[in-house]
Amino acid sequence: MSPGAIFSIYRKYIREVRRLPHIYLRQFYQIQGSDTFRRVLQTEPEGMRRTKLKRILKGLRRLQLANTGNHIAFNRMLDVAYGRVGKLRYELLEPLLSDPRATRPPPIIPGNEKSRPPVYSTELRALLTSAYSRKNPLKDKDLAFPPTLPERARPGSEEAKLLGPLSKRREVNTRWRFFTTEVNKVLPPLQISVEPPSSDSGTNGDATQPRCIGFEETNLLQQVFDLAGYTCISPLPTNRRQSGPGTTPERSRNPFDGKLPVRWLRRRYRELLGRLPILTYHPAKSESHSYTVSIPRNALMGGKLQASRLHFVDGEDLAWLRDITSR
């Protein structure tokens, strides 16, 4: 395909990006699109260029669907822009895959430095064992001894006595395969929140600071909170008797651009909050329990409200329920 045809597709892409309802989305996809199209133009083999261009056209169709109100396409765009999938997700997870403060475990195969087992950082342990950052949370014992590892890996087990000890190379491969597989199921946080230390905790200022990861120096997480507000922003009704010829009815501030309904957009961002775990650092707790994972109260998980936002059933509700069921 000629460069002129590629530039024509790029102009269509930019037009769709300008229709996105928020400035962060427009900036993210404009930068991503410029890098992607630049790589396509720098690709020499025609077959590889067509393959990359086909992927771009697929993203362009997703942009067009998102701008017309397709919630599946819009959710996918939010996931890419906020690191739920794609390259940004790996960049958010990468600092958590190692812990410079932890001591390196000894190699499983003596004398082979590459046979050291993986290190689970404190932040990664909290994410792996939480139901808010993955569907099936692990237990602490699974991190010490993976469930995919045969019992023969335990020196004193019955299987080891009957069948002999497990191969050290197989143990190394199993531990690393389990580590890689389970990490790929984790939804990374955008940043680490810090719980203010209490006055009687006795911790100094240096010990209460966790590692800086992700969008630590930005207000991106707070921006998502603002975009996923509870109330739907809609124009106030006009009272003809009170409005004169020189007065205009007051309207609530709309944080979005474009023609998509504000209530629909807020619901998409509240669903995004259900996929954005908040990693909180507690300086007063012990090292093994210094991080907790949660999600915001106004988040939607699987299109449903959290149980914490549902009202408790009181005596009046129970009486009404008995009356309804007895009819």
Automatic annotation (TrEMBL):
It comes from the Eukaryota. Residues 139-158, 236-255 are annotated as: Disordered. Residues 9-93 form the LYR motif-containing protein Cup1-like N-terminal domain. Residues 236-246 have a biased composition (Polar residues). Pfam families: LYRM2-like. This is LYR motif-containing protein Cup1-like N-terminal domain-containing protein. It comes from Pisolithus tinctorius Marx 270. The lineage of its organism: Eukaryota, Fungi, Dikarya, Basidiomycota, Agaricomycotina.
